Amino acid sequence: MASLGVSMSGPRFRIAPSPTGFFHVGGARTALYNWALAKRLGGTFVLRIEDTDEARNQPQWTQGIIDALAWIGISSDDPAFEGPYFQSSYAGQHVDAALRLFESGNAYYCDLTAQEVQDRAKAAGKPGYDGYSRDRGLSAGPGRVLRFKTPRSGTTVVHDAVRGEVSFANDTIEDFVLLRSNGSPMFMLANVVDDIEMRISHVVRAEEHLPNAPKQQMLWDALGTVPPVWAHVPVVVNEQRKKLSKRRDKVALEGYREEGFLAAAMVNYLMTLGWAPRGETEIVEWSTIERDFRLEDVNHSPAFFDIKKLMAFNGEYIRALELADFIDACQPFLLSRNVPWPAERFDAAVFAAMAPLVQTRVATLADVPAMVDFLFLADPSVDGAAWTKAIGAAGAKQVLADTIASYRELASWDAESLKTALEEVSARHGLKLGKAQASIRVAVTGRAVGPPLFEPLELLGRTETLRRLLAAESATG
RNA sequence: GGCCCCAUCGUCUAGUGGCCUAGGACACCACCCUCUCAAGGUGGCGGCACGGGUUCGAAUCCCGUUGGGGCUGCCA
Fold first, then answer.
1. What is the dihedral of CA A404, A405, A408, A409, to 10 degrees?
2. For chain A, which ranges sit under pLDDT 70?
3. Angle formed by the axes of helices A396-409 and A462-475, to 10°?
4. Is residue A401 a contact partner of residue A473, using CB atoms and an 8 Å limit?
5. What are the CA-CA distances from residue A473 to residues A397, A415, A458 (Å)?
6. Any idea which residues of A carry the catalytic annotation?
7. Strand B contacts (CB < 7 A) among A residues 369-408?
8. Residue with nearest Cα to nucleotide B35 C1'
9. How far is CA A472 from the centre of its chain?
10. ipTM score here?
11. Distance in angstroms, CA of A278 to C1' of B57?
């Protein structure tokens, strides 16, 4: 459509999410495929919000989709990005196209109700519409649907960029509805008309749409246009090998952002589902993906969305961050309302000092608060089991008392001195440092595991450290 | 039921007839390092679904079986 001012040069790709309130991770992967191709080929990535129900198809419903795409690097500011478009803006053309199909003899009206169609199918023992009105020559009228007249012989071959040639016997494709009895266009028709109007050249989407491809291709042909390049990529599945669904699985891309996954890690991981970068490592930059991604190389079988592997990728990406960037990335998780400490006790400088120690120890940014909470909590809650094991251990009380005495007199309150002092205490009790530090750790942090001990002790200061050690000592009775 | 798709370690994959006694990554296990936990290093466990072909030679090609999945609306 020239009136839209769309670019006519270069291949045109589109994604067509439905405004469901979240953006599906499977859709994100498909979007990434389209984006990589559009960018490499100097084409256009078209975002079209797919819903013929105008009530649901409002700009405000789509902001979430746009934000989610932006997060994974598909920015509406990029010149290759076009849209978002709303299918409903072509409603008139959908009906026009249907009428043209009727006039050219490619479609016919049928007055059977949905119930009647079902009854006939049941009686015949074959599911689907049986072509009852095919040759009845009905004209348009109330209560009549317009159906596409599919060929009754021959085969329709869909040339698929990832699967090769897929052929369908035409007599297995029923005469599907184009216009409802109230005259409104069906999605299938609307979808094809929009693709034609927008000069879409490549339709890259999930495999679940493959059975629709022959029907859509028939429509392209009947409307006098040459069909696009089809590419049906495998679906993403859960551990039961079923397509990811909103009910059963965690599929919202936004949810992963909230849980502290880095966009770059998410993008990289998503791309490895069904496709592998050329080099010896699968951790690759987007530029590499853009350069190397080919539809022909996409796997044919479904891929399991493995959160464990996503976490491993995320950990790698977190560790690769510059310290300042890591600290920045942590901010939303440190300043969030869900944080365990009172907001006013948070100290950015203390966190900055701890940051290098936590950076190698977290898989997601959401893990960060629990690593440093004891620094900002007035009284860290104590893990009962850890307490019993570390403080209740034989000799632990003496170690505690000895450490308190030593720390009281310590000339310089710094991590190195604190360590040396505790080493001396340990030696006096015939313990290894690893053993002796356990009770100190639990007394001060409330946990048996955590970041290295002496740096936080330094940050906490002598007064507070001793206060906690004393409290632990007296609690042993 | 009908139509369609798929099949390499537990998982994601490399592999396009000889470089394969099948390579990598995640997970798992062991060891090293080490103030706990991580990170890092080293090593280990583990796979071509099955049966027939074709070929001098098959993970790779063909057929079948089995097993998985998707679609099957006057929803989108």
1. -150
2. 1-8, 57, 477
3. 160
4. yes
5. 6, 22, 20
6. 246
7. none
8. A434
9. 45
10. 0.96
11. 28
